[in-house]
Each structure stands twice: as C-alpha cells, then as structure tokens.
Design goal:
The protein has 566 residues and is of the alpha+beta class. The protein contains 21 helices and twelve strands. The strands form three sheets. It has a four-stranded mixed β-sheet, with no helix packed on it. It has a four-stranded antiparallel β-sheet with strand order 7-8-4-9, with helices on both faces. The N terminus and C terminus are likely disordered.
Amino acid sequence: MGAAHVQGEARNTRDPSQQPQSRQGGSYKPKAKSSAAERESEGAVVPKTVEQSAGTNAVKNNAAGGKGPCGGYVVSGGKGEGMTGKTGSNQPPGRPPVDKVRQLQRRLWVAAKRAPGRRFHALYDRIHRSDVLWEAWRRVRRNRGSAGLDAQTIADVEQYGVERFLEELGDVLRAGEYQPQAVLRRYIPKADGKKRPLGIPTVRDRVVQMAAKLVLEPIFEADFLPCSYGFRPKRSATMALETLRKAAAKGGHHVLDADIRDYFGSIDHDKLMKLVERRVTDPQVLKLLRQWLAAGVMEDGGMRETISGTPQGGVISPLLSNIYLSVLDTLWTRHSAPLGTLVRYADDFVVICRTKSAYEQAEERIRVILERLGLELHPEKTRRVELYDGKQGFDFLGCHLHKRLSGHIWERERKRVYFLHRWPSERSMKRVRQRVKELTQRKRCHADLRDVIAALNPVLRGWGNYFRTGNAARRFNQLDTYVWRRLRALRVQRKGRHLRPGEMDRWSREYFENLGLHRLRGTVQYPERVNYREPERPPVSRVREIRTHGLKGGLDFTRHGNAAKE
C-alpha cells in the first residue's frame, strides 16, 4: 500500500487490459472480428462516468459523483453544454446504449485469455463502481430470495430507496469499512429424504458478492475448461447431457457415475485462496473473499465459525467451487483424457469410457486428484455403470440415461446399434407430480379454474423446457394425463352430488387446453442430431437377393443368357 498505492490511485487511469505504452499498435486482431466473436461473459471497458439512475446509463451534466479521468470524483456538476449548448447522451442515434458492465467483462476476459499467467492487481475499484453495483442489484432482485440475518428483504430495500441503498453501500466499500454478516442457516428437503443445508446471506452481502462475481468471473472463465458445465455463463445442463449422448454414440459403454461427499462443506479455505491468487493479487479483493469464507453461520440462535467450505446459497459460492474443482478438470485433461470423457456439473460428474479397464483406471486417478484437494468420493452415490446393449442406466442432472436399440437401423440394415436415450428420472417425475398436487388441492375446487391453470403453467412450462431435449415423449404424456385428472377432479369436487350422468365427458383434455392449460405433448426435440455413417455396401436384404439371383436377373440369367450368346 503506502505512497505507491496512493500514487496509483491518483494516476493509474489505464484499463487492466490495456497494452503497455511502449508497444506499438492496438489489438492483435481486427476490432470488428474480435468483438463479434467474443463471448457474452467476457471482459470490458472501464467507464469514466457513473450511472445516475436505475433506468438509464446516460450521464447528464457531468453530475457530482462522476469518476474523473484521473480516478478522482467530481465534486460539483458541470455545465453539460456541448458545441450546440444541448445536453444528452453521446451515443450515436440509431444504436442501442452501451452496456459498460458487459464491456468491462469482455475486456477482462480478453486480457486473461491473452496472458494465461497474468495476475490482476487492481480490481477492487471496479467492484464498487456505480454501474456494477446497479447491475448486481438487478440480478439479485431478479433471483429474489429470502431475507438474511438482518431480516431485510428486497421489498424493504425498495421501500428504503434503491439508489440511496447503493450509494451508501458504495461509500462503505470505497472507505474500506465493509464487514459481511453471518449467513442464516436453513434446510431444504432433498430427493432422498435428507435435508440440504443452505446459507442465506443478507441482501446487502448478496449485492456485494454479485458485484465481485461480475468482475472476477470473466478472469477465471478464461481458464475454465470445456468439460465443466455447472454455474457458468453460456453453459447448461443440456450441453452436458448432449456431450454424454455423443460420447456414448462413439463407443462409450462404461460410465463412472461419481459424486463428491459433502463438497460445499469440505472446501479447504487455504487451498482455495492459493488457487484464487494465481490470477488475482488485489489485496482488497482477497480480503473480501476471506471475509465471506469466514463470516460464520447462525443456526438455532447460536453462532458457529466456518473453518472450511462455502455456504450453498451464497452468490459467490458457485464461482469459488468451480475454481476449486478446476484442478480436477486440468489434471484430467492433461494426463487422463485418453481414458474417457469427463463431464462435470458442480460436484456431480461422469466419466464415460470405451473399455472396462479404462474406467477402472479413471476411478483410481480421480481418487488421487480429489485426495490432493482434501475431498473424497461419496461411497453410496458413486458407482460403475455398464451401458453396453442397454444393460444398465444411471441418473444425472435429473435425467435417467439408458442405451436403447435403434429400431430404424435394425429394420433397414438388421444391425444392432444402440444410442443413449434420456428422459426424466423417477425422482424428477415424483417431484413435479408433488408440485402439481400442491397446486390442485381439493380446497381450490371453488376457485376460478383459469387461476388454477395460471399457477400450473409456469411449473409445466419450465419443467418441460428442461426435459424436452431428450426422449421424454412418454413421460410428457404421463404428466399431461396426471394434470388433466387433477383438474377434472376439481370440477367433480365442485359439482358434488349435483353431478349429472355423462357430465364428466365434457371435461376432456381439449376443454382445459382451451382454457389455457400448457400441453407438453408434441414439444420434444433434440438440440442436434448424432451423425450416423450410413453403410456404403447394400443392406442385408439386398445382399441376400444378389447372392441368390445375381445382379442382372439371377443365376439362371447369368448361365443361360451367356450360353445363348455363345
């Protein structure tokens, strides 16, 4: 810190991704090409002004509080008069306003990608930038969530005044006086009957964590490998499932279905911070992360210190967990990739191999890597699965995956070809049926049926959008039937003894669909098709015909025809 730090505060105005002044030229790629090809989560520019309100990014009259070109803050507002004496945005007409937070993320990602060994030392001032805090608030508000230890809800913040709330929070961060509160422990039921512990930070802490995530995520995204799909921008569970489907079509018959025991509660803080320090050396940012890791947990009225782990429910926890397990991704890709394909989603991961010996070696190597991180495989949830000829299947990311014989290829070629199919698992079906049952209780029989359907549709639409990229047609029909019977039971309950014979027949599926009920049938489709190379030789039926009758009319034609010519 000291004098050098103070001087840097006043004079270091360059963006972290800017090239040294001694280097001639700008980007090594054309700007049009690099900006169009970059990802949504990638780095950005540092604006010289701050956002004045929630609704616009335009800065008027150089108002007080704006950040000047030397890193200081404007004390008094300027006249705001240009050459024409008018005020307004400098954005050219006809173009959308520039998202400065997205530009910042793109610049950070590009800088990290170009220099894999670079360590960022000036990031804290980006976290407490006004536009970054506003974007963090918008995302926290969109995610909703309950109150933390201070019992302050999102509605309370809106009543207090969002602009005032963010200004005070920014002042506290700039002054270095920010102290996070302990997380509130809550439990939610799991599919196996157990309970999952959650740590709920306060709204204030969630906004700061989101701001830090906006700045740090592009840097580490440049290092993350394609085998990781969980809690990453532009990555999804569907992409992970599609990777498994394609690997299985290329001969993957053996699967190591792995799960880490109590992963979020077993992360070693010291090892995690060493991994973070490979990329970030800003002492204030590192202090923030250490404060969140050691904030403690409030449970049953008592405070408990956290020695290890990151609380599930924290905004920053998914990023930290991915940083920690990126060691597994890196070591596997460097040394064990020939054994099989690794597909990881947070702490759940799968290795699909071509041979039995390969997936036995894969399990041994993964255990060694996890031991170095202080982790271990869950003995009950980790198992070996043989997919060959559809013998076994496994559950992953809410889906059941099982190989099925292709009837089309069998009919055409008499060849047994198996493809990996997926559909909602039994747990997923049970969970959605339970949710439908809660929304169609008997006490709602006198409610407006359109209101009941309006409550059902978001559940059906969201569930269907997730599972529609697989072989879920049968499960979709089953759920459609279940919903139809529940709604029909409400009509019967409302009629009671006044129900006339044959009146139930009018309450068909079409009756409820005409009232707006979302239908799952007919919505299944794959994101893309697995390429199957068609055989160059004729099909089996044609081969038999050629062997029996010849190419030009059979054996008789060949013998007698040639004899006639002679």
